[in-house]
Input
Amino acid sequence: MTGSSYLELLRLTAPEILVALTGFLVLVLDLTFLRRAALAFRFRTAIVVACIGCVLALLVLERGSAQGTLPAGMLVVNSLTQLIQMALLALAILVLLWAGGARFTTHVGEYCALILFATTAMMLLVSTQNLLVIFITIEFLSLSLYILTGFDKDSAQSAEAALKYFLFGGMSAGILLFGMSLLYGISGSIALQAIAAAVNASPGDPMLTLAMVMLLVGFGFKIAAAPFHMWAPEVYQGAPTASAALVASSSKVASFFALFLVFYLGLMPAAGSAAWGHSSAGWAPLIAILAVASMLWGNLAAIAQTSVRRVLAYSAIGHAGYMLIALVTHSPESLTALVYYVFTYALATVGAFGVLAALEEEKVDSIADFAGLGKRAPGLSFCLLIFLLSLAGIPPLAGFAGKFYVFVAALEIPDHFGLLWLVLLALVMSVVSFYYYLKILKQAYVSEPKPGAAVIRVPVATRVALWTAAALVVILGCLPDMLLNRIAAAVAGAFQ
Amino acid sequence: MLAWTIYLSFLGAVVVTFTPGKNPTIARVTALLTALAGLGIAIVAIMHADRSGQVITIVRTPWISRLGIEYHLAADGISLILVLLTGIAAVAGILFSWNVELRVKDFFALYLVLIGAVYGVFLSFDLFLLFVFYEIAIIPKYFLIAIWGSTRREYAAMKLVLYSFAGSALVLAGMIAAYCVAGQRSVSFEVLAHFPFPVHFQMWAFPMVFVGFAVLAGMWPFHTWAPTGHAAAPTAASMLLAGVVMKLGAYGCLRVAMMLFPRGLDPWGFRVLGFGSWQQVFAGLALIGIIYGATIALVQKDLKFVVGYSSVSHMGFVLLGLMTLNQIGLAGAVYQMFSHGIIAGLLFAVVGRMVYDRTHTRDLQELSRIPLGRLIPFAAVTFVLASMASIGLPGFSGFVAELQVLIGSWRSFPWLACIAGVGILIGIAFTWRALQATFLGEADTTAAPQQAMPPITLPERLGACLLLASTIVLGLYPRLLMDLILPSLNGPLFEQLRRGAWR
Output
């Protein structure tokens, strides 16, 4: 690499560098000047600094920073990746705000810095088309998330979740790497474009099948698709709320996008088809199996849960199933749909976790603890209503527009409605999902509060952030055009 | 201007939520004024409507341009009369829930959201928009029943909502499929109603969408949400459920399933269990609903369940009328939608508000021991008149409607018409039985001394008069609505239906 391309590298990664530097700044500030300050003050300062960093990075992206490609797809920055990076930053800001009320740790700087580092990793993950960089960024992301999950050192649940997450994650990372090495063996390259060319030459290679299965196992773990979802309920329940929010929202956005890129760009010739009656071997039927398993298991198991966080975890598995339909479809249209879906899904999920974060003091865990929330905190429970109904896919909220578009994209590809069976299954399962979301809302609005339960006070910053998120969910649902056209243009620009 | 029925209702909901102070009267009055405004707009619109069957466009702007979805509100005669029905039911419902004391603001806010969504469904001429309003209506139903309901309310609310949602999932699948098959990047009725969908596609899309909507219309065997839901709901909600929400289902069957996929009604060319087309299958199911609902109503002990099952039976007439596929049958079906909306509202008002709120029982045995006829004569008169309307005596709207449905089905399937006639007879029996037990029975004067009952209040009287007047006026002068229904059925949107299976 020549000197000028290092400059290019710096220019292309300016937002990432900004976020990472902010992470270090937060760390240093907290360990030097704020050592002796009160915990609440330290949290507030760290969060403000971190948020400013994120906002600056957002502005840099919005102003349209440099776009371009480095050799071998090491770094591919275009308006689509920038859009996704902006979403990741916005989610990171929300997650940081949720962390504001946390009192479980004295390592404030480390906690906020890790959130920023994880975000940096995700931003890099979405802007590369190179297997090696994908693997490294996934590991970077995972390591940050493992620590964030186990950050509550006094809680056995948190430690258990982190250990489980780490063990599963380590194993699946190994399998992912194995799959990637097989792909390298087939194609002699780690750039997705070059791999696609090699796969095109010999699409029926049995080694390729093995590689695809292993890649799917690795990514299936990241996106919590059944049957690789075991860690999700533990992490959602045990991890500190802000960490869980990060795992549930932005990590999903980045992983889904990377998964789509790997299969769409690198393995397109071996896609096969999951169409009913016309299926042919390839990764599309494999992913269809994952989608079916996730939709069924996630939604049915969620019914039996008593803990709200576990319900959210299983619903996340179900949603992964819906989103995998977009992957089975694998058209530019379905990528647009997927990006819209995963944005709105992440927004609603991070919002739901925000409500949980606001209830941190109440030690809310089981669904029964939500009894009478509508009276104790009307604003909070209204936000919860919006988020959960959006997750359930009730129009005119954002979740519905996403679902609708994913399904339309699945039926629009010219194979005579071959994917209708998947869409029908998804619709049936969304009826099931409605039941468990409504169960939570029933507690909040129908049941009476426990005697002696006081009105809940929510900090102003949290309240503003929650209302903003809820308003966004409504606006994106009522006027999906704003975001949809932007995504579609970016997708079209990214894959002419 | 008609669009304001929707906006005003939603706006009213917001205003009611934020009405100041503890005084519930402000909330009530606000809600009533909102509903009255809606009704007023509906009446004005009907008076100015031209009787030529043209579709009046109210609003039409691109909405989701990427998918070609429009925000398209419009009305033809059928929409107009159902909007009028919604207006009447809304006003009456608010009058009959004047005595709600628990969380008054929430109650009226949810009620108005439901009303607004219902208006929206009737006025939508873009399938996507229709679906959006259809789903918005589901949520307030749940909370209205689960919070303010009675008997097993949480169970009933959940059941109702899951049935509705399952039905709408079928509709959604049909809508997406229609969108992709047509490939016109539009789900506007104007586009889809003229698009020649392939017959084999219509053959599976039609039953899917029809069943999806018919769940909400109480078609047997998907009716079971209706009696439990009606019985558990608070009075105003059961009035709306039976009066308007079930009509959403029937309206969807006609407007979406039959209008867009008329060839789905064609004969299959083979016979399964004696059925040769979806038309015959659904006519059979409608008939089972008529007989089954009436028979079950005959043996109910709970007065509200009697009315609930009677709704299933009467809605069977709507579906039967739709399946006759001739002009008189279809017109009868639409007329029955209106008529049943009024009459069911009236019956639920008497049962839920006038009787239950005073006696705190709905058990027919216990009611027969209370001399209700003497204690609340106004309720007795209302219930007698409502019963007469319900069993279809001439002079009430029910007669006009059911007669047309019967004539229509006589032309299409004479046998079924005979059996439906039996259904009417059973209807007379169960209505008479309920009437006998509640108001006309010999009160047991030796029993416990009669407790004084609060007199019938002014809002109740006004509500009852409004509904009674509607059913009698429409019974005596059916042309008022028929002049709107018939041109619409002969309008351009139903052209494919007329050309296809129409006889």
About this structure: Residues 3-444+453-499 of chain B form one domain.
